[in-house]
Amino acid sequence: MTTMRNRNHRQPRTEVHAYPVGMVAILIALIGLPGYGCRRYPNDEAPPREVVLYTSVDEGFARLVLAAFEKNSGVNVSVVFDSEAGKTTGLVNRIIREAQSGRPRADVFWSGELFNTILLARRGFLERYEPASTADIPERFRDPDRRWTALAVRARVLAFDPGQTSAGDLPAKWEELAQPHFAARTAIANPLFGTTRSHVAAMFAVWGPERARAWLTAVRDGGAIVADSNSATVRALSDGRAALAATDSDDVWVAQRAGQRLDLRYLDMGHGGTLLIPCSLAIIRGGPNPNEAGSLVDYLASAEVERMLAESDSRNVPVRAPLREALGMEWPPESAVDFERVADAMDEATAAVREILIR
Amino acid sequence: MTVAPVRKLVPMAAWLIAAMLLFWPLAALLTRTVMEATAPAGGFTYSTRQLGLLWRSVWLSLAAAVACVLLAVPAVYALGHLPNAARPRALRLTLAALAAALLCPPMVCVFAWQRLLPSGTNAYAECAAVWAMWAWPVPALILSAAWRTSGRSSYEAARLEATPTRAFLHVALPILRGPIALCLLILFVIFVAEYTVPHACGLLVYATELLGWSAGSPATLDTVWPALPLVAVAVAGVIGAAVQWRSGTRTTEHRIGPEASPSTGWPLVLIASIVTVTWLLPIGALAASISSLAAAGDAIRIYGRDMLASFGVAALSALVVIALGLIVLTRPRLRTPALIAALALGAFPGALVGEAVMAAYNYELFKALYDHWPIMVLGYAARFAWIGCVIALSLEHRLGRLSDQARTDGAGPLRELVHVNLPMWSPTLLFAAAAVTALALGDVATTTLIRVPDFNPVAHVIIEKFHRREDDTLVSLSVALVVAAFPAVLLAAAAVLPGTDHQHRGQRVNG
Q1: How far apart are CA B52 and CA B38, in angstroms?
Q2: Which structural domain, as residue segments, surrounds residue A190?
Q3: Are residues A200 and A296 in the same domain?
Q4: Which one of A32, A293, B164, B292 is most buried, by most CB atoms within 10 A?
């Protein structure tokens, strides 16, 4: 049989021979890249210990903390960060799905908020563990069954531009924000997700369903802007689409650091203050590296890390009173709502949001 | 290895790739949705808000698609007036410029434009404008190719009695209405599922909200049900594009007409001007906003590993997509099911593709995939598999007499593919691979659910820095993504034209 090599039509192939060769070279180079991204160890050295962390804490900050832990402990931390679109619930649902498939992949969950962690604990996805050196953390920031530890709080605040809105024109209570002249100028994040979801659940817990539903209705009728994240509400404030933004304290600090003239007010939600949102730590039940998980949680729950969080851009307020005093930070005016009750109200609040606001 | 085992292995590998990439994720998504047996959180209805967001997404995407085609028309006009004699140099420059603009991820474009546009710019106008100024090379390339093959002779005839502009507007454009409709539909499908630009503009559209819905619930139906309207809209667009494609291929003249008034000067200047305004200017403004080289160095040092891994994963995804395209082209039994599955996944919003891939591989059996970067390769490749298929269909018409003669000479399918088809197709395949790489590098929606501990995709790092207002890191990584696209730009410039020439030369040799 005559092969193609002996034919005239070989001519075009020889003219373009550089392209297949080039393709092969590119393939080899590209295939190597993902491997380059992975850690490699010499043959005579056992792979170091590892722990898998799922976290919704600010990525830049988490990197600093985890680098210090890796250096001190010799344990490598493999991290899955949450995305802004995921708003913590993305990681929570991932933990649930992996546990349901009988193969938990995470060892530790380090969340930027607490209420979803409580829900994970109630569903039996978290391991009991009491981190070392947490005796100075107030009892209300620790699960009675020791499945989670909370620390380093942020607060729900009302952000405003003092150049556009004077402090005298602000509401004093969250409930007043639903009044038409405030609601029409307010941006809130979608309460189906993130800390705004917890905030609305806290309203249900503190005010009761009737007042909370009336608030949602008034906010809707008043024409409040519903944005897709807390940071988007602050951007709405920056670009003039809103005069007031219901958001988290760290979003305001970050905007201030970026040079924006924003200020915040702690509105009263009842019992004299606003909702506080602590970060939380937990060990996932059945995770692949339980020993290393304990080491990591011990470190993340330490006063050292809480200090780092307080000194970071998000300025989380330590739950340890001596540390607050040492740093000169004040405890935000706090609503005395029980965290468990907020978690209790999550489902009812979400259903009401779907029915009233996001319909 | 001898030829016989290879002949057996190739069909198996083809089925394996198609199954892992397309059939299994779709089947897993369907199975899990049924097995969970739960109603969506909002019930089996669509809220007024959801329908409102859908309507907003549809008209915004249509407006952007129209703006994009209008922006491309001058470039098409200029491309059509580049003379054949000048093509080796002029077209290389032109294609490099178009590739540079196209391979810049849309999130980088929007962050760049936000540095130029005045504060308080209407968010809808900003979103549509950024989409148009990012994607205009797509219609420019499609329409100029269509003009060269199907509208040129009529235009040249009209030019005997009319000015070039008048002949173009009144003769060429009406003839190109089919390809124009095709461009509008392709752009519409891309924009309606795009996440980053509306998000950066502070706009809520269906795709941005869908991502929250998918991340907000462990129940699969809570993602599948709200995704269905978007899928329906995208499927309508895909079907429309397919119909236009078929009618376009039937009416193709397959000729390149002589130019009455070739010129290398003004067409190049016109195209350079458009590229300058739509790409060079905003990217330049972005690069100029880096506060210091030290800050850029820090960003690269901290995120270099994530960036490199993201690039490698994106490039591997592109290779898988191209492999799938070749499978569609060369395996008749797989062709129809693979094509349907790829187009279905193409019509899915990224969040739903992520849901399907996670449903498919969250098993002990697949832990080597699920726990590491290969799951992300599968995710990106499933999302952009349709590009491989579309490219494959476009290449089918280029087989020509060389393939016929190779078969007559006794070459088997594999030998024909390796020695005849791949050399002829390689320029187009390279460019397609570059495009998929760029799209994957900028993708956020798919990897909101598909994440691995090995690394944080650079697109997510950039979005996070946008929210945290860490401008130096955002700008440094964005500019690094633009620089990372340069090899693909050079490939486009170096490869596309010779491929075309060889094809014609080959036809001459054998004709």
Answers
A1: 25
A2: 155-275+345-357
A3: no
A4: A293
